[in-house]
Amino acid sequence: PIYPGTVESGDELNGIDLAQQLSGVVVFQAGTKLENNKLLTSGGRVLNITATGHSLEEARKKAYQAADMVQFRGMQMRRDI
Fold it and tell me: Which of 7, 12, 46, 57 has a CB 3.0–4.6 Å from the CB of 31, allowing a cystine?
């Protein structure tokens, strides 16, 4: 699919808590909403995930590892950054 493609809203996000348990990882929410105690997508770029490490390569690997823990229907992710 072409990134970012068509986006959907109202899909439940899973795995953010797991991703944030990795040392040095921070998940920034942008296109999310809390509804009935569930975290849902609300369109656009849903999350940004960052990480720190002893090297740029370590930080990059950790950020992508954390991103792979997050799941929601229609998820699209850049892997060229």
Answer: 46
